[in-house]
Amino acid sequence: MADINDQDILNQENKGYSEDSIKVLEGLEAVRLRPAMYIGDIGDRGLHHLIQEVVDNSIDEALAGFCKNITVTLHTDGSCSVSDDGRGIPTGPHPVKKISTLEVVLCTLHAGGKFDKGSYKVSGGLHGVGVSCVNALSSHLEVTVRREGKIFQQSYSKGDPISSVDIIGDTKETGTTIRFKPDDTIFKTVEFRAAKVSDRLRELAFLNSEVSLALIDEVNQTSEIFHFPGGLVEFVKYADSHLQAVTEIVYITGTGNSDGGADTIIEVCFEYNDSYSETLVSYVNNINTVEGGTHVSGFRSALTRTINAYATSNNLVKTALTGEDFREGLTAIISVKVAEPQFEGQTKTKLGNGEVEGVVRSIINEHLAIYLDGNPKVAKKIVEKATLAAEARMAAKKSRELVRRQNALESSALPGKLADCSLRTAEDTEIYLVEGDSAGGSAKQGRDRRFQAILPLRGKILNTHRARINKILDNEEIRTIIAALGAGFGEDFDAEKSRYGKIILMADADVDGSHIRTLLLTFFFLNMRELINSGRLYIAQPPLYKVKKGKQEYYAYNDQERDEVIKRIRKDKGIIDEVAVETTEHISVDGITIQRFKGLGEMNPIQLWSTTMNPETRTLLQVSIANAAEASMVFDTLMGDKVEPRREFIEKNAQYVKNLDV
Questions:
Q1: 74: part of which helix (H) or strand (E)?
Q2: Which tens digit of pLDDT belongs to each residue from 446-470?
Q3: Does 123 lie in the same domain as 165?
Q4: Helix, strand, coil % (nearest 5) of the chain?
Q5: How far apart (Å, rounded) are the C-alpha atoms in residues 192 and 80?
Q6: What is the CATH number of the domain that holds 264?
Q7: Where do the DSSP E strands lie in 470-604?
Q8: Most buried of the four, 120, 345, 537, 652, by CB within 10 Å?
Q9: Which residues are 282's β-sheet partners?
Q10: Strands 552-556, 287-288: pairing kind
């Protein structure tokens, strides 16, 4: 036997990992290799993010004062084009790269005018990777620039130029048109949805009142133009269109800076309605800051302080009202333009610039005080609304104290019907909120007790959209949920204290199950939104069908999957005749059994585990809020008192129910 020395051992350990193992990705190779790092994911959200990146470049031109019109076109060949009337991307030789600047912008990460404050004082595209990422993830991209009296054009494939920058004509216009077709080898889906695109364009039109944004859908032969000269005032009207306003709209704008820094532009618009919840949507440079930040805290503190001071000086209240009291029924839009925003938080959409808080607070204090003095009727209504909220808050004090006691981490304070898991670290655990005792029993037997907790819910919980806090806390099922999660409620809520890393809603795949999911989503959206913002809330996807042929069993989650399974079985068995597929349980002429599950309780523990609870085989939908204003409006429509808007919404969106974003 040969002797093995230390050097031999070291050589063996290093085998396969040498200088040759270190790969350097050139150009846009990194984007194609790890696309999710740059656009979030490669699903539906990432696909539509490509459009957002290109549109944001045009919006930056508008913010700089050089663009008035932007047109997005969804073409029949699956491509999308974005055209603007801005200055046009420069096409001359780049002083460093010695090639066309157009090619530098389209093919180089971190290349763009955003880094030159002389070009863009304010920008939503902070990292300069937007359009180059779109280029890298497109099977084909063509850019056309109208600039300096000429029309320039260049084509690319998967991030690489396949033509030179050619002059194809003369023009008196200026602007840029980018047409791209997403690479179907990268994305799970390459089908753009007009409804999703229009939501973002509408939002941008509200935030940029001087810009007109058009959407042309060649696939469905429709078109829309979004232009709102009233800006945030029209935004608030839109957000509250399904509610009854109790005050007029208050609009405040101003510019300020701290310590001699760059100016920060502030726009705030708000009104009070007859609901019991708050809708506050904030933006920084057109980016939706779903986690808030210093601009939001500045607004809230100024709102509370200024109205309290007015109410006290005019003898409208005996004791000072709290910030929570002023949030009931408040719909507010906050938009700030910051030269160098610093983001933090789970989703990197929480503003961290400390100086912005002081600027916002100062401007709101000054302008709101003047407004209240000049509009005593509006001021009185605001104070009356907050006073009623304070009375409800005091009435809920006993219920809140009970919930606080139940939120203790000791097992004795946990709900009796909760089947807890053995692991205690939140990031390793998950809790299923299960509809019905029968399904809850199956889930308890089928779960992995180490990391999965089960909380059965009885019936439909309270519709929290139209309920004050005291009524919410009086609901037994809601108190049970709050106690099980252990993260508090209302002003005490802290998502980081949640006892579980994932909260999973599991209900039947029928109309009643959908209603229960909507009620639960409403509760979390209004009262524990940070769970959604931090990516902790999920929806389980139980199968609709079991397809069986002999001893082989397959599960299908929708009609399309069911049909595909049946075709596959028939092909494997050499069956070539087509047999109609029914949606009820039956045995067809070729011996294929199709069972439609009417509810979770019909599945035994083993089936429930393998189809809906096993992390290796299950499908979970992560709940997210891409547009808080749109989400709030959907909840107002679906869960509010007015029947007609709800009927219109259902009639309009029934055909998209499989892809409906809430």
A1: strand 69-74
A2: 999 999 999 999 878 888 887 887 7
A3: yes
A4: 40, 20, 40
A5: 8
A6: 3.30.230.10
A7: 502-506, 537-540, 545-549, 552-556, 586-587, 592-596
A8: 537
A9: 334
A10: unpaired
Residue ending a domain, among 195, 226, 257, is 226
- Residue 170 is a catalytic residue: no
- As a whole number, the mean pLDDT across the chain is 83
Which of 500, 517, 540 lies at the terminal end of a domain, its last residue?
A: 540
Cα(465)–Cα(458) distance, rounded to whole angstroms? 19
Q: How far is CA 497 from CA 456, 472, 485, 489, 501, in A?
A: 22, 21, 8, 11, 10
Q: What is the domain extent for residue 531? A: 412-540
Quote the CA–CA distance of 568 and 581 in Å, as a whole number: 14
pLDDT per residue as tens digits for the range 44-88: 888 999 999 999 999 999 988 999 999 999 999 999 999 999 999
* Contacts of residue 517, Cβ cutoff 8 Å, sequence gap at least 6: 505, 507, 539
Total tally of structural domains belonging to the chain: 4
Phi/psi at 225 (nearest 5 deg)? -125, 130
Catalytic residue among 340, 401, 437, 510: 510
- 508, 630, 636, 661: which one is catalytic? 508
The dihedral built from the CA positions of residue 375, 381, 382 and 384, taken in this order, carries a sign that is: positive
Q: Which residues pair with 268 in a beta bridge?
A: 252, 334
Domain presence at residue 418: yes
pLDDT tens column, 609-652: 989 999 998 888 888 876 666 666 666 666 666 656 555 555 45
Let me know if 85 is a catalytic residue: no
The single residue of 84, 435, 477, 661 carrying the catalytic annotation is 435
Residue 410 has pLDDT above 50, yes or no: no
Is 435 tagged catalytic? yes
Q: Which residue type occupies 17?
A: Y
The residue annotated as part of the active site, out of 512, 563, 564, 641, is: 512
Active site residue 510: yes
Beta bridge partners of 177: 83, 144
**Residues 6 or more apart whose Cβ sits within 8 Å of residue 163:** 153, 154, 155
Domain identity same for 209 and 69: yes
